[in-house]
Design brief:
CATH class: Alpha Beta
Strand order of the largest sheet: 2-1-3-4-5
Strand content: 15-25%
Helix content: 25-40%
CATH architecture: 3-Layer(aba) Sandwich
Structural class: alpha/beta
Number of helices: 3
Number of domains: 1
CATH superfamily: Resolvase, N-terminal catalytic domain
CATH topology: Rossmann fold
Order of helices and strands: EHEHEHEE
Number of strands: 5
Shape: globular
Length: 128
């Protein structure tokens, strides 16, 4: 699986951008997935629709070009978007065969809130 990481920074988040990055990297190491690209949305952009945030054009381009298989995010709450926006993003990515994985809980994120079983070799331990 070739992965792309997306990190949303906010001023009042419980996790810094660096902490989110470490959570994603640890999951990638455990799952033995290479990270093809890291995308960051700066603080202040979380009020914009997720499709207009920095990095989203690059994400969709990479998905359309078949360069990645999975989007790695910290978890749903750290995307700072509505359920409708999230479902739109997930459906757009699924059109290209790209699934979304929540690194914090070690589970697949799919439309409608479904979660797939955690992958083998992923113990879901807490990150510091």
């Amino acid at each position: 699986m070739r992965a792309i990481c997306f990190i949303q920074e906010t001023k009042d988040s419980d996790l810094t951008q660096r902490q989110q990055q470490l959570i994603c990297h640890r999951a990638l190491r455990k799952l033995l997935w290479p990270c093809e690209l890291e995308l960051f949305a700066q603080a202040g952009t979380e009020e914009q629709p997720i499709s207009l945030r920095p990095g989203m054009v690059d994400l969709m381009r990479a998905a359309a070009a078949g360069e990645v298989d999975v989007l790695i995010v910290t978890d749903i709450p750290h995307l700072h978007c509505s359920r409708a926006e999230l479902d739109g993003l997930l459906m757009s990515l699924l059109q290209y065969g790209v699934h979304t994985f929540g690194a914090n809980d070690g589970q697949w994120i799919e439309p409608g809130g479904r979660h797939w079983m955690a992958l083998p070799g992923y113990d879901g331990e807490l990150y510091e």
